[in-house]
Amino acid sequence: MPTxxxxxxxxxxxxxxxxxxxxxxxxxxxxxxPLHTLAARAGLPKSATSRIAAxxxxxxxxxxxxxxxxxxxxxxxxxxxxxxxxxxxxxAALPFMADLHRVTRQHILLAVRDGxxxxxxxxxxxxxxxxxxxxxxxxxxxxxxxxxxxxxxxAHAPSRxxxxxxxxxxxxxxxxxxxxxxxxxASVP
Length: 189
Hints:
The protein has 189 residues and is of the alpha+beta class. 35% of the residues lie in helices and 15% in strands.
């Protein structure tokens, strides 16, 4: 592996990898980043980040706000919407998600497993429900989500995904030993 020079990317690191590091620097939806923050988060020199950002702006992957901050461009949304693992599933699930949303008046999440994480494909939000930090396109750690997404995806995951599932303890109504709904939550060994 090439040695890393302080403040510089590894010698010979492909431009595409550096471009994805720049794009991966954005953590929040709609977040605008000045060049120095973008460079620091990407782990690249400001000069390289500036050149890469200019190229990404040229293809619509980044946009620049009036104050000079960079934001993710709409072209990435266009491309991401073509991802086959989420699109077909989303189209098939939406009518059922809408029914569930109408009955529960709670947030309804649809995700696909990607290794030890889930990528949120769709979310129907309810105004009266508790605030949720998850966003479409965001990642959720399967083993740590106290929500049904991780549990449901792990329940049907192949054993080769390297995660184990603890069985839920049996509960009785009114029992002093009743466990919370997340007791059957998956864990990473």
